[in-house]
Amino acid sequence: xxxxxxxxxxxxxxxxxLKREDPRDALVTYKGKTLEELPEGxxxxxxxxxxxxxxxxxxPHVSVVSLRGNVATRLEKVETGEVMATLLAVAGLKRLxxxxxxxxxxxxxxxxxxxxxxxxxxxxxxxxxxxxxxxxHFATFQAVTAERTFMRALQGSCRTPMAGYAHLEGDTxxxxxxxxxxxxxxxxxxxxxxPALESARIGEEAAERLKQ
Length: 212
Description:
Double Stranded RNA Binding Domain, alpha+beta, 2 domains
């Protein structure tokens, strides 16, 4: 779901979300250095504006460069020292059996994930909604709904440094969102909470708070 556009074509719907994998980011570095150990000017490769903004906000002494290609290509560029660090989704590394390559797992409070990171959704025609609905994982569905509503309300896209993460505790949905400039100098956060069944409202209200 992380790569699904905010606006969905008319006639299509998401009847179900599968149980979410770990939503966090992983740091992979040359020779196992931690974020705090990265030297002045160290090259951190990423194609994500969100990750770039987080890095430059917290560690302004590093240099962020574009790093594209599949996961294996990115890992190889770190292992050969072409870049000293990169950030990848824990979910992707786990599904590829490569989580052992991670130097650090970055906590959500430090590096807020991309909207819907780690979640797999099922999309179908509206008339087929009931056929897939039994596959739905309620907590994931409500969390992703809040996150995607937040993104849509802020007109977010892959060209916007934006993050959001919601999770369920009992009947309450807790949400935290972020929007920034690419350099991480104007990073703004918002937190909101409410009944789990009102996830869309929570995401929309959080976006309005951030706009204000």
